[in-house]
TrEMBL record:
Role description: Catalyzes the hydrolytic deamination of adenine to hypoxanthine. Plays an important role in the purine salvage pathway and in nitrogen catabolism.
UniProt xrefs under InterPro entries: A_deaminase_dom, ADE, Ado/ade_deaminase, Metal_Hydrolase
Cofactor note: Binds 1 zinc ion per subunit.
Record organism: Polaromonas vacuolata
Cellular compartments per GO CC: cytosol
UniProt site positions, description: Important for catalytic activity: 234
Required co-factors: Zn(2+)
UniProt name for this protein: Adenine deaminase
Domain Adenosine deaminase, residue spans: 25-344
């Protein structure tokens, strides 16, 4: 057992685990903000903007959320994003997410967004970034949540498209903490984006990429060695490659794992078969995240509670996951220390040793 845990964890019973999981402070590092659009908000924004939807009502849209793989999800995801046109739409979408995040005791969030999905529809880059950034600023004021933005390139498009997207975003560089790579993984290896990632590194942007969700371990190697990312989004396929597992453990490269997403997109047949526990027990710096919570049936605490119930993980794993989420985040060391101290306090409060 290589878990980085807290002395109080051993005194916290499995019975009290759901309460601990919900209460403990945590960071979310893998949330596509367009994937937080609930069907109700999609219909409200469609009405506000006069956009016609291919679904009769909220229930018809929700019924379409029966996915067989990543692509079947992406088709509906991009249709849902079509209702986003104005700055206030992006603000409202992110603000709705922060309400859910606050309920789940998420104290820091790094939001992915897909500008190419919007600029291709004629929405200006400034409209997208201004709306999301204003919601991040207000999240601190309203909920005490610190938040930042990670611009993601769509990997099913060309690297030339990504370079154009980057140029459009440069005037708003100060509102971005980093860049990522998402959308359909298979057939779109990391090497395709070597130049644009190198350019972003020169600009001082933090680098992450989706790799090893459906794609092979070779995509994770390439994300590390060619794109030079600091975190791997998903990464669960690393388990097929012992040398890669060793590398990830030695470098303490964080994996932003999304269990309910993996379940809904059939990466694992059921949650009990998920390899998160094995990743943690092998010494990898794994975290739990919600990915596209409106589409995959759960926000942060749903992911925590359901995954722990299915895999039998204990309070030691809970501490490790929450601590990893802070250590892998793109905040400064003082903020990390403050968050870890609040996590330690939460575990100390749960410690019932000697109490009768
Ligand atoms: Zn994702």
């Amino acid at each position: 057992m290589i878990l980085n845990t807290h002395p109080a964890a051993k005194n916290i019973s499995q019975q009290r685990l759901p309460e601990l999981l919900k209460t403990m402070p945590k960071a979310e590092l893998h949330i596509h903000i367009e994937g937080s659009l609930e069907p109700e908000l999609i219909f409200a924004l469609a009405k506000r903007n006069g956009v016609a939807l291919a679904y009769a009502d909220v229930e018809a849209l929700r019924r379409a959320y029966a996915f067989t793989d990543l692509q079947s999800f992406l088709d509906i995801y991009y249709a849902g994003a079509s209702v986003l046109l104005k700055e206030e739409d992006f603000y409202d979408m992110a603000s709705a997410y922060f309400v859910k995040a606050a309920e789940d005791n998420v104290v820091h969030a790094e939001l992915f967004f897909d500008p190419q999905t919007h600029t291709a529809r004629g929405v200006a880059m400034q409209t997208v970034i201004d709306g999301l950034h204003r919601a991040c600023v207000d999240a601190q004021k309203i909920h005490g949540i610190s938040a930042s933005l990670i611009l993601c390139f769509l990997r099913h498009l060309s690297e030339e498209d990504a370079l154009v997207c980057l140029e459009q975003a440069l005037p708003f560089r100060d509102k971005l903490v980093g860049i990522g790579l998402d959308s359909g993984e298979l057939g779109n290896p990391p090497e395709k984006f070597e130049r644009v990632f190198a350019r972003c590194a020169q600009l001082g942007l933090r680098l992450v990429a989706h790799a090893g969700e459906e794609g092979p371990p070779a995509y994770i190697w390439a994300a590390l060695d060619v794109l030079k990312v600091e975190r791997i989004d998903h990464g669960v396929q690393a388990i097929k490659d012992p040398a890669l597992m060793q590398r990830l453990a030695e470098q303490r490269t964080a994996l932003t794992v999304c269990p309910l997403s993996n379940l809904k997109l059939c990466v694992f047949p059921d949650l009990a078969s998920h390899n998160l526990r094995e990743l943690l027990d092998t010494g990898l710096m794994a975290t739990i995240n919600s990915d596209d919570p409106a589409y995959f049936g759960g926000y942060m605490n749903d992911n925590f509670v359901q995954t722990f119930a299915a895999t039998g993980m204990h309070a030691g794993h809970a501490y490790s996951l929450a601590r990893n989420s802070f250590e892998a985040s793109f905040i400064d060391d003082a903020a990390k220390l403050k968050f870890v101290a609040s996590l330690d306090q939460c575990f100390a409060n749960f410690d019932t040793a000697g109490v009768n």
